[in-house]
Amino acid sequence: MARKHFFLLAVTSLLICSAVADWNILHQRKKNNVVSGSGLKKYCESWRINVELNNIRGFEVVPQECIGYIGKYMSSSQYKADCERAIEECEVYLSSCCDSVKGGEGKDAWIFDVDDTLLSTVPYFKSHGFGGKKLNLTSLEGWMENCKAPALDPTLRLFHKIKGRGFKIFLISTRRESLRDATVDNLIKVGYHGWSGLILRDLSDENRRVQHYKAEARQKLVKEGHNIWGIVGDQWSSFDGNPKAKRTFKLPNSLYYVS
Ligand SMILES: *[C@@H]1O[C@H](CO)[C@@H](O)[C@H](O)[C@H]1NC(C)=O
């Protein structure tokens, strides 16, 4: 009898123990899975937002563990909504900023970046590892030569609104002079026309920091008497330095950093 009781007790405690152990293991496993899944997502989203805030600078590649996340974001309707919102804010500014702008031979200017502002390079990066590999300029420029870059639709709409308001539009790009024909063809093909200047990098600009090259291009516009009302771009190096525009509008870009 005592033996039987002991046996029962032993079996019961074994069951309880294993139940507790099982529960613990399951619980832990589940918890760990959730933590690592959402932990990674949080990590990658905070990497992305800190790139946008210009806290993370000069990155050469997207962190390996975030390539999937960044690829998804840059192909998502969220990225499109973020671009749309930035452009809408620009339109709000446009509706109140510039009543003095008359157009014609005026000196009121607006500046745009080209890549990932007027034209999208997302299709290129989609087939080249979404920023996870070091940029191969030869390959990217080969793709640009094909003039297949689509327009960013909200920016295309804004471009024509700004032009309609009588601003002169200047495009300042880090693309090289050798890409001028391809760039013009591509821009016209997707619906851009009527800009006042397309400023590209010549050989002497190639070893300079982009920020200095772009600031100098603005300096030249100001010396010619232009009033720079706004800049729309996807890189901080498009806004930094003097002279400044009255307002700048940053479009998201987690694929590459130009400094
Ligand atoms: C860069 O791209 C070019 C053209 O596609 C290719 O020939 C070259 O091997 C690539 N370089 C590297 C380092 O991947």
From TrEMBL:
SUPFAM superfamilies with a match to the protein in the record: HAD-like
The UniProt record lists the keyword Glycoprotein: yes
Keyword Aminoacyl-tRNA synthetase attached: no
Gene3D superfamilies in the cross-refs: HAD superfamily/HAD-like (3.40.50.1000)
One of the Pfam families matching this protein, by short name: Acid_phosphat_B
Signal peptide: 1-21
InterPro entries attached to this UniProt entry: Acid_phosphat_B-like (IPR005519), Acid_phosphatase_pln (IPR010028), APS1/VSP (IPR014403), HAD-like_sf (IPR036412), HAD_sf (IPR023214)
GO molecular-function term, one example from the UniProt record: acid phosphatase activity
Protein name: Acid phosphatase 1
Taxonomic lineage: Eukaryota, Viridiplantae, Streptophyta, Embryophyta, Tracheophyta
